[in-house]
Structures are given as C-alpha cells and as structure tokens.
Write a structure and sequence with these properties.
- With about 250 residues, this protein is of the alpha/beta class.
- It is built from 8 helices and 10 strands.
- The strands form 2 sheets. Strands 6-7-8-3-9-10 form a 6-stranded mixed β-sheet. It has a 4-stranded antiparallel β-sheet with strand order 2-1-4-5, with helices on one face.
- A hairpin with a 2-residue loop joins strand 4 and strand 5.
- Helix 3 crosses helix 4 and helix 3 packs parallel to helix 5.
- The structure holds adenosine-5'-diphosphate (ADP).
- Adenosine-5'-diphosphate (ADP) binds next to strand 2 and helix 1.
- Adenosine-5'-diphosphate binds next to strand 2 and helix 1.
C-alpha cells in the first residue's frame, strides 16, 4: 500500500464566540495515500472548509493528530508553517487567487521564488514546462484578467503543481466556473492524477464531480459518516448537491 501523505486522527476544531461553542470538526479520522484522488463532500456547514484550512496549515486544530508527509504538523511553529506549506502543499481555490498585476508565467513562478534556491533560468524552464503540460503556454505573457475563468483556474493549477507538492488541496475548484469550464478543469485534475500520479484532495458539493473521484469521504456535523468509492457514497446522498436546491 502506498505511503500516506495525510494522516489525521480524531481532529477537532471548536469555534468559540461569547455564548456559543461550535464543534465544526468533532473528531475526524482521515488518511490520504500517495497517488489517491479523494473528494470530500457533505451538506453546507458540515465542516469542509474548516477541514481544508487545517489540512492546508492555514488554521489550527483544537485537538487531534495531523501528520503531513510523515511529519507531525499539529504543533508546527508559526514560522515553520509557511515553508512547510510551500514545500508540501499546492492550493487550488474556488476564486483562483491569481495576482492581477503579474503575468501568467510570473504567477506560476511565484512559489518557486518563495521557496528559493532556484535560479531564474531554471525557474523559467520549469514554468514553461508546466504551462505547456497544462495546455496554456500560449497565454504565458497574458494577465489573469485577459483569461476566461477556466483558463485562470488552469493557471492556478499550474501554480499549485510547479513546486511538485506532495498533495494538491482543491477547495471547490469548479465553484466559480460554468459547467463546460468546470468539466475541463475536472478533466485536467483527473488526468494529473491518473497520468502523473498527483495526489489530490478536493472539496466539492457538486456531486457530479464528487462521484468521479476514486474515493469519496462524506462529512456530516463535523464527522466522517461515509467513506467509499465515488458512486456508492454519492448515490446515497443526493441532498448534498446544492444544485438540487435541497440543502
Ligand atoms: P462547510 O465548508 O462544510 O460549509 P464550514 O467548515 O464552513 O462548513 O463550517 C462548519 C461549522 O463551523 C458551521 O456550523 C459554521 O457555522 C461554523 N464556523 C465556520 N467558521 C466559523 C468561525 N470563524 N466562527 C464560528 N463558527 C464558524
């Protein structure tokens, strides 16, 4: 069995306000192995965003264990977080999060600059290779605003991949796209997984896409309630899909 990239045991996240305690994650166990493509789904408010923020080292858990790429990161010091994130995680967000006054090539090269230790020539070469792999090399000198949403998300995926991370965390990657562009982005992610062995954990409430992941983890009230092969889990819970208007 492949080694695990993400190993989470009894993860909890409690939000406290003056009068209310919300148990957004109430003891999540989750393992993602190298080469897997896992979708996290579940109704609105079940804890998907909270889980992704903690897995992405953007937020702290209240309790539980988290090992990322074999290292205990639950108690990582603040200053070690950014570099750990940069080395091990590629992010793809719903809103693309590209920098508007940088070109496509500059956006994609940015994580390599943050990482350091790579000269400009090697960086340019790596960026060109990844843009060509993603099929967007002809847009290298364009600015994000000159691209369609689908193209911007492809650039964001290139940026996530450029550092060859252990895992790609994709949070509703098709949420801002029309169905055709969303389909193309999903095909790209699937292709990166099957052809290049990229490990992907994706949050989606779009069951059409969730069912195509090889494994689906379903959250409800901050806990994993179902886990299995895509279609088997998704078919049980059509109410998760916001498009049905049932949530
Ligand atoms: P999902 O992404 O599945 O919609 P979230 O992770 O955003 O779910 O939210 C899980 C629960 O935690 C919800 O009940 C939500 O209201 C609560 N929550 C999320 N963020 C905060 C916060 N910053 N402060 C207080 N409660 C929060």
């Amino acid at each position: 069995m492949a080694e695990s990239v993400i190993d989470v045991i009894d993860l909890k996240r409690i939000y406290r306000t003056d009068h209310v305690e919300t148990h957004a994650l109430a003891g999540v166990d989750l393992t993602v192995r190298r080469g897997e493509y896992v979708a996290v789904t579940g109704p609105s408010g079940c804890g998907k965003s909270t889980l992704m923020a903690i897995l992405g080292l953007l937020d702290d858990s209240s309790a539980g264990q988290y090992r990322l790429a074999g290292q205990d990161v639950a108690n990582l010091r603040e200053r070690d977080r950014a570099s750990f994130r940069n080395r091990h995680i590629g992010f793809v967000f719903q809103a693309f999060n590209l920098i508007g006054d940088l070109t496509v090539a500059e956006n994609v090269g940015l994580p390599l600059i943050y990482r350091g230790g790579i000269g400009k020539a090697a960086r340019d070469e790596r960026v060109a290779a990844i843009l060509s792999e993603i099929g967007i090399v002809h847009r290298a000198q364009h600015y994000p605003a000159q691209l369609s949403g689908g193209q911007q998300q492809r650039v964001a995926i290139a940026r996530a991949l450029v550092t060859e991370p252990d895992i790609i965390l994709a949070d509703e990657p098709t949420g801002n796209l029309d169905s055709r562009s969303g389909e193309a982005v999903m095909e790209l992610l699937e292709d990166l997984n099957t052809r290049k062995g990229a490990t992907i954990l994706m949050v989606t409430h779009d069951l059409h896409f969730a069912r195509r992941a090889r494994r689906v983890v379903r959250l409800s009230d901050g806990q994993v309630v179902d886990e299995g092969f895509g279609e088997a889990v998704v078919a049980l819970h059509p109410e998760d899909d916001d498009r049905t208007g049932a949530v």
